[in-house]
Amino acid sequence: MNLDKNDERILKNLLVDARLSARQLGLKLGMSTVTILSRIKKLEKEKVIKGYTALIDHEKLGYTLTAIIEIIAKKDKIIDIETELAKIENVCGVYDITGNTDTLVIAKFKSRNELSEFVKGIASIQNIENTITHVVLNTAKEDFRLA
């Protein structure tokens, strides 16, 4: 799907505030409400917009630990392992990457004990050969919006 400048402007505004109404977007962007609605519907149909969500402060919910876990797996089982890892509630991201590591997992935890249980649990998953866990000390930026 080819996005034009108006589609990009709509997306950038929705990334900043997904609660904006079509009317508010139209006024802000100098477009009609009907045009905004039809463009949003098209972006949703094409799965450019996958859904709408709130940005939350995980620490305020008690998730004070962020871990980045490198996983080395048996080569023919990487996709299966990534699919299994993606189902785990604490996991925020699962990435199939290049380099010496096969998969990178980003996950959040409420305690060191919870992180320890998680790491021990995934290390025991069949076909995972090794894990390397990094604990995040400080977060300078954590925002996946490209606005």
Strand content: 15-25%
Query: What would CATH call the class of the largest domain?
Result: Alpha Beta
Structural class: alpha+beta
Number of strands: 4
Note down, in words, how this protein is organized.
By secondary structure, this protein is α+β, with helices and mostly antiparallel strands. The chain folds into two domains: 5-45, Winged helix-like DNA-binding domain superfamily/Winged helix DNA-binding domain (Arc Repressor Mutant, subunit A, Orthogonal Bundle), CATH 1.10.10; 58-135, Lrp/AsnC effector binding domain/regulation of amino acid metabolism (RAM) domain (Alpha-Beta Plaits). The protein has five helices and four strands, in the order αααβαββαβ. The chain has a four-stranded antiparallel β-sheet with strand order 2-3-1-4, covered by helices on one side. A hairpin with a 6-residue loop joins strand 2 and strand 3 (103-109). Helix 2 (22-29) packs across helix 3. The relative contact order is 0.15. The mean pLDDT is 94. It comes from Nitrosarchaeum koreense MY1.
